[in-house]
Amino acid sequence: MEKFKLEDLPYAYNALEPYMSKEVLTLHHDKHHAAYVAAANAAMEKLEAARKSGEIIDFKSVTKTLSFNLAGHVLHYFFWKTMASANSGKNKASGKILEAINKEFGSFQRFKTEFTETAKSVEGSGWAILACDQERKDLAIMQIEKHNVNLFPEAVILLPLDVWEHSYYLDYKNDRAKFIENWWNIVNWEEVEKRFIGK
After folding, report:
1. Interior angle at CA 115, CA 9 and CA 83, nearest 5
2. CB of 31 within 8 A of CB of 54?
3. pTM to 2 decimal places
4. Which are the contacts of 104, defined by CB distance < 8 A and separation ≥ 6?
5. How many CB atoms neighbour CB 30 within 10 A?
6. What separation in angstroms does the CA of 100 have from each of 4, 79, 113?
7. Ranges of H-type helices in the chain
8. First-to-last CA distance in the chain?
9. 128 with 118: CB under 8 angstroms?
10. How far apart are CA 40 and CA 148, in angstroms?
């Protein structure tokens, strides 16, 4: 079994300041994301050992643990990639993704409002995600609880926003709305475009 791996961030830990601090990024990537990777690997090892031995284990518990942690790993993988420094030149939507957003939502501002309100209203821990249907390329905004509840089948994740408290509490205390407002400054629309057109 090939293990899941925690990849390095695609930028320096201080690259997203002042909107996301080095302290938050270090804690979030090196501790929280790393924990999801370790737990997903541990669950896979339990399943592999049970298959080799023929043992009947608590499959409900193990597969639920795997789903939660593997989804956490995948969402974080895309979360890091779809952010970039505010002076990177990648922070303005354009191209095919902007055309699709305007077609689906009527305007970029309407999309931004819907996405923001979706993110603000996540109960407890979860995500707001812009996704598209693999075949038709229709866009949809999803509100994910935890990492793996309410995920649309066959949806390609284009733009995920993590609104678990560990994403913002050290920088914004309990002001999730301010975190979301500032996060728009570091969205890497170049990466979102690549994911949308399938490159």
Report:
1. 15
2. no
3. 0.92
4. 111, 138, 139
5. 13
6. 33, 21, 16
7. 22-27, 34-53, 59-81, 95-105, 108-120, 169-172, 176-183, 189-197
8. 28
9. yes
10. 13
The whole-angstrom distance between residue 59's C-alpha and the CA centroid of its chain comes to 27
Both tokens assigned to 40: 């997903």
Pairing type for strands 139-145 and 155-162 reads unpaired
The Cα 51–Cα 48 span in angstroms is: 5
The Cα 165–Cα 175 span in angstroms is: 10
Cis peptide before 18 (omega within 30 of 0): yes
Q: How far is CA 35 from the centre of its chain?
A: 15
The string of pLDDT tens digits covering residues 117-175 is 999 999 988 999 999 987 777 899 999 998 776 766 678 999 999 999 999 999 999 99
Kind of pairing between the strands at 155-162 and 126-133 = antiparallel
User: Which distant-in-sequence residues (6+ apart) come within 8 Å of 194 by Cβ?
Assistant: none
Domains of the chain, first to last: 21-199 (3.55.40.20)
Show the CA angle centred on residue 4, arms to residues 38 and 146, nearest 5°: 60
In degrees, rounded to 5, the angle at the alpha carbon of residue 77 between the alpha carbons of residues 151 and 131 is 35
Q: Which structure tokens are listed for 43?
A: 């669950």
Whether residue 90 is predicted with pLDDT greater than 80 in this model: the reply is yes
The radius of gyration computed from the CA coordinates of the chain, to the nearest angstrom, equals 18
d(CA 48, CA 58): 13
